[in-house]
Amino acid sequence: MKAKIQPHLKKFALLSLTGLLLRVYGWIYRLYLLRRFGAEPFGLLGMIFPFYRLLSLLSTMGIPTALVRLIAIEKNRQNTAGILQMKRKVCSLVAVTASFLSLIVFLFSAPLGALFYNDPRTGPLLRTFAVALNLNSLCLVYRGFFHGLDRIVPLVLADLCETMGETVFILLFLFSSPLSTFRVETGAQILARGYLLGEATCLMALFLYDRLRVRPQLKITSTAPPSRRDLSSLLRSSFPLMAQQLILSCARIGESILLPKLLTTAGLTATQIAQQLGEYWEMATPLLFFPLILFSPISTLILPATARASVQKNLNPYFRKLRWLLGWAFLYSLGVCLLLLKWAKPLSLLLYKSTAATGYLPFLLPALPFLVMNNILTPVVEGLGKQKFLLRVTLIMIFIKTGITTAFVPLAAFGLTGAAWGVTISQALLFCLLMKETLFTNLSNGKWFLRQAKFFSLHKP
Questions:
Q1: Which residues does 416 contact at the CB level (< 8 Å), separation at least 6?
Q2: What pLDDT, on the 0 to 100 scale, is given for residue 448?
Q3: Quick check: 64 and 237 in contact, CB under 8 A?
Q4: Cα–Cα distance between 252 and 398 in angstroms, integer?
Q5: DSSP structural state of residue 210
Q6: Among the three residues 169, 198, 228, which one is the final residue of a domain in this structure?
Q7: Cα distances (angstroms) measured from residue 239 to each of 63, 88, 186, 399
Q8: What residues make up the domain containing 185?
Q9: What is the pLDDT of residue 29?
Q10: Are residues 112 and 223 in the same domain?
Q11: What is the pLDDT of residue 178?
Q12: Which residues of the chain carry a pLDDT beneath 70?
């Protein structure tokens, strides 16, 4: 038993330690940039980033997530030649699609910025992100490839290289600049170019690791010709995932467009809107997502593990372990919520020299337990191959979240706290639906419910 658990513990420890270090470093680094640039450049990037994520999704077509499950299954069958063949086809397809989309956005960046955001400052930023699109799409394919092989080291290496590449560029620029303050447009452009360099560094690291370490090992272990699995089968399984992620990306874009319009209806100026969005997206929301760092490594390991358990028809013992994990996740998130509520003001003053973020926390923190548990259940659903279910659930969740946001944000008494309520309620609904489809639906013959009924019947008064 120890021999089986030890490799998983090592992977979890590596992911957790690296994630913690990067998250702490990222907080310190972002705080420095917030104090140097202010919140407004981050507000501009927050408007653009959902659209960029949509382009990334269209260029990858949901393939990286589907590739994880496929490679985990083929690895279990020891079809290493087929894995290499599929990776080559996927990289070629994604590279062509990403190049086409990035060219369109690069050429029409100014009209797209004016159309979507009614702010000419977003045009140059879209041009920079159009260049980054090619790099990001191939990085996602490589990550899916290594994830399916259950190789954690290249995933960690990619995160480190991406962070360091971005940091080196931005800090060198800041230290070499004689200016103590920057215009909003200049600050946003520096941040965008730093992101571009980070993606380039990440792709280079993944490519070299594959060329020097992974590909030679797979070729050595390949003793038979690849079993036939054409690209169309992968695309059929990836299209529901693409549609689900497409809806999420469109919803984020809609939110980045809708929230400024709703705040304009409430009577705020463009500067006030960018300031409040920067406080909501870059100050309050990170406080909500930071506790996820402990369970993010677990979710990385869950998808291929679920695919293997499904192929080996070993789901019942697997789900018993998963229920214990969900219980610990719930208790952990409740404790974090209480600590954040108690120390919200001194923590916000320490981090941001402002208490602007604390106004949103009472409305965002109830979402934390559901976020943590959804972070565990979503890769379970993906590992089971239930992409169509995720698509339906996403539609319901987005509809409810958008309705709540639209109803409450324009009201002076709510503002962006209405958007926070939308996050909490939609995450609670998502958790209920994921639980129904995973732990309750997949228990064979309803044995769990029969045991519970028997237990209560034995203890009737």
A1: 259, 263, 276, 277, 280, 360, 409
A2: 40
A3: no
A4: 10
A5: I
A6: 228
A7: 8, 19, 39, 21
A8: 20-228
A9: 82
A10: yes
A11: 64
A12: 1-9, 12-13, 16, 177-182, 220-233, 237, 249, 253, 441-461
